């Protein structure tokens, strides 16, 4: 690495970064609910729907995010670390691509005949958020640890 922070540390990144995906989907859905002027077809207030969605995202969204982190971000992060190319943009692009590919597959696996009405680009946004969070957490020095 070009700076004095030392090599990236993946332990905390693997545990915490996947939580960025459900948060990104929740924030995107909240923004969409606040700017949408139409009522939901079932008569539920869109803001109440976003609050309900928060719980669902943590239960159903976290497994996809943790799986993608373990199977995609962690190995690619290790390769980038070894090549001394560990950067925010590389992991964000990897997350964006994997989120764009895996999110629709996961949603189809959950409910093959269902229709999901998330904001446009939800998969890439969730993946990019996870990739950036992985980089951010892995590249930060742990407070009080001079060797981190």
Summarize the structure in short:
67% of the residues lie in helices and 0% in strands.
Indicate how many domains the architecture comprises: 1
Strands, total number: 0
* Mean pLDDT reading: 82
Low-pLDDT stretches are none
Span between termini: 13 Å
Query: How much helix, percentage-wise, in residues?
Result: 55-70%
Order of helices and strands: HHHHH
Structural class by SSE content: mainly alpha
Fraction in beta strands: under 5%
Helical segment count: 5
Shape descriptor reads elongated
Rg? 17 Å
Descriptive report:
It is built from five helices and no strands. Helices cover 67% and strands 0% of the residues. The model has no long low-confidence stretch (mean pLDDT 82). The longest helix is centred in the middle third of the chain and has 37 residues, at 46-82. 29% of the residues are buried. It has one domain. By secondary structure, the chain is mainly alpha-helical. It has helices at residues 11-16, 20-35, 46-82, 88-110, 122-138. Helix 2 (20-35) crosses helix 5 and helix 3 crosses helix 4. The radius of gyration is 17 Å and the shape is elongated.
Features:
mainly alpha, 148 residues, 5 helices, 0% strand
List the helices and strands and how they pair.
Layout: H1 11-16, H2 20-35, H3 46-82, H4 88-110, H5 122-138
Helix pairs in contact: 2-3, 2-5, 3-4, 3-5, 4-5
């Amino acid at each position: 690495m070009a700076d004095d922070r030392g090599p990236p540390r993946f332990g905390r990144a693997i545990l915490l970064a996947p939580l960025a995906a459900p948060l990104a989907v929740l924030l995107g859905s909240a923004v969409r609910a606040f700017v949408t002027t139409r009522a939901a077809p079932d008569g539920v207030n869109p803001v109440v729907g976003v609050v309900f969605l928060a719980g669902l995202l943590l239960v159903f969204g976290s497994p996809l995010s943790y799986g993608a982190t373990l199977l995609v971000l962690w190995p690619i992060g290790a390769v980038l670390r070894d090549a001394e190319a560990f950067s925010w943009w590389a992991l964000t692009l990897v997350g964006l691509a994997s989120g764009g590919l895996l999110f629709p597959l996961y949603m189809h696996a959950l409910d093959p005949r269902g229709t999901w009405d998330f904001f446009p680009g939800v998969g890439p946004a969730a993946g990019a958020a996870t990739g950036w969070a992985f980089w951010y957490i892995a590249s930060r020095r742990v407070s009080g640890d001079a060797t981190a």
